[in-house]
Design a protein that fits this description.
The chain is mainly beta. It has one helix spanning 2-7, and strands at 28-39, 42-50, 60-66, 73-79, 90-98, 101-110, 121-129, 136-137, 152-165, 168-177, 183-190, 196-204, 212-221, 224-232, 248-255, 260-268, 276-282, 288-293, 308-309, 316-321, 324-329, 340-348, 362-369, 375-382, 388-393, 398-402, 413-417, 423-431, 434-439, 444-449, 458-463, 468-476. A hairpin with a 5-residue loop joins β24 (375-382) and β25 (388-393). The two termini are 36 Å apart. Beta-D-fructofuranose (FRU) binds at residues 31-32, 48, 59, 91-92, 107, 158-159, 174, 214-215, 276-277.
């Protein structure tokens, strides 16, 4: 199967919407990041992949590696749906090193013929590699054949994330209750990655927290335990939860004796239109890095006309501050910076282009004096008929990402309400078909795909009041 794909010369790299420094599939479809890890001196990123078309289909695990988290090398497909227990898809999962070998733990997805395509079965499986490239599925798969709790659905039971604690392996798996559709996380434990025992229902949805929890991650960040997951079925509440599915976190405490995770409230990790199924890994120097799918289910994806679909976010470092998670761009991304253009103390009274600040890729950092600026817009990827606008009003402390006139693709707005305070710093990453805005050192992030014409490259600073007071603007060309 790998040979067939690698001898197919056609790939989408370099086509008009294809990112320059974000991870994306060489050709075909991509969704969730999988098996994100540091192994043998480099980062490995696997992903949900359908190599034969730019549509979702029987899932393979695509594979790429990177030393700096922004230059990605494509490797052969790691695992394909070719066994009785994963014949309809190798669904999401994670990776861990044991005795020098790299283990992948994933969900085998099967649609038994007797079910007439209506239902599927999901079990947890492993594959192993001694070189980080060639993987062999375990002869004893599946290693977790059922959810272990009679109330849990065996149909929606997926996305194992494995870690090691005090010499034992643990895995959280996405789940829901069978009878009444309540999202939950199941915890399993193992001595050897091959034999697993049900431990607990670690956490379960209350109120508006959804009918199914996908893609769980468990981490300790700055001394606090955190459960990150992607709940489906949360209803919109005002400007919050506008996407079809959500991704966020709960800070808490996992009792390894009982397996119960006691926790605080759920918060989103990103407020843009396109962010889902994030996965974390730990760097050799102890940072927690997250990569998410920079797309959303059921959205229009104009890159499909060039035979690919889906890309990842930039890697983000997670930190805990004031009881919340802050996401900042991984420091490795500074390696992308080439030319630096900066301005200080600007007082703009009309829409202004700043000399040498324009482009379709790069990093733009704007520090606004919100004490003296009631409202402003920053227009990105401006062309004759299109623009993507970051809008802000100080009275409401509301930041809006407006892609109603962004070009091809979905047109909508997303909003985030910021904490009170005088400061507003925006750090914006532009790539060919994406924008990611890091607000106030990671207090909030907004990530969305945009599909402007290649020629739409202007950046315009627009005062919506007397003046737009800017402490500093820096643009790094990549
Ligand atoms: C999340 C998800 C996972 C599943 C995978 C299938 O986006 O639905 O729960 O494993 O995608 O591609």
């Amino acid at each position: 199967m790998n040979e067939k794909i690698s001898t197919d010369k056609k790939n989408s790299i370099g086509t008009k919407f294809y990112p320059v420094y974000h991870a994306a599939p060489p050709v075909g479809w991509m969704n969730d990041p999988n098996g994100f890890c540091f192994y043998n001196g480099e980062y490995h990123l696997f992903y949900q992949h359908h190599p034969y078309s730019a549509e979702w289909g029987p899932m393979h695990w695509g594979h790429m590696t990177s030393k700096n988290l922004f230059e990605w090398k494509h490797l052969p497909i790691a695992i394909a749906p070719d066994r009785f227990y994963d014949k309809d898809g190798c669904f999401s999962g994670s990776a861990i090193e044991k005795d020098g070998q790299l283990y992948l733990m994933y969900t085998g997805h099967v649609i038994p013929n007797v079910f007439k395509q209506k239902l599927h079965l999901q079990t947890q499986c492993i594959a192993r590699s001694a070189d980080g490239i060639n993987f062999e599925k375990f002869s004893g798969n599946p290693v977790i054949g059922n959810p272990g709790d009679h109330r849990a659905s065996k149909y929606d039971f997926r996305d194992p994330k494995v870690w090691k604690h005090d010499g034992k392996f643990y895995a959280v798996v996405g789940s829901k209750t069978e009878e009444d559709d309540v999202g939950q996380i199941i915890l399993f434990e193992s001595e050897d990655l091959e034999h697993w025992n049900f431990k607990s229902i670690a956490a379960r949805a209350t109120e508006n927290l959804g009918y199914m929890w996908e893609c769980p991650n468990f981490a300790t960040i700055d001394g606090k335990e955190v459960l990150i997951f992607s709940p489906q079925g949360i209803k919109q509440e005002g400007i919050v939860y506008q996407n079809v599915y959500q991704s966020g976190y709960m800070i808490g405490n996992l009792n390894y004796e009982t397996g119960i995770f006691t926790h605080e409230d759920f918060h989103l990790l990103d407020y843009g239109s396109d962010f889902y199924a994030p996965q974390i890994t730990e760097t050799p120097d102890g940072r927690t890095i997250l990569i998410g799918w920079l797309d959303m289910w059921y959205e229009k994806m104009p890159e499909q006309e060039d035979d690919w679909a889906g890309m990842m976010t930039v890697p983000r470092e997670l930190r805990l501050k004031d009881g919340k998670i802050f996401s900042v761009p991984a420091k490795e991304l500074e390696g992308l910076r080439k030319e630096k253009i900066s301005y200080e103390k600007l007082s703009l009274t009309e829409p202004t282009k700043l000399e040498k600040i324009s482009g379709d890729i790069g990093e733009l950092i704007v520090d606004v004096d919100t004490g003296k600026t009631p409202a402003f817009g920053i227009e990105l990827r401006v062309g004759e008929k299109e623009k993507t606008i970051i809008e802000y009003t100080e009275a409401e402390k509301l930041l809006i990402l407006n892609r109603k006139r962004s070009g091809k693709g979905p047109g909508d707005t997303r909003e985030v309400e910021l904490n009170p305070g005088k400061k507003l710093t925006l750090r914006i990453y532009l790539d060919k078909s994406s924008v990611e805005i890091f607000i106030n050192d990671g207090e909030a992030v907004m990530s969305s795909r945009i599909y402007p014409d290649e020629s739409s490259r202007d950046i315009i600073f627009v005062p919506w009041g007397n003046s737009f007071e800017i402490n500093s603007v820096t643009f790094y060309k990549f």
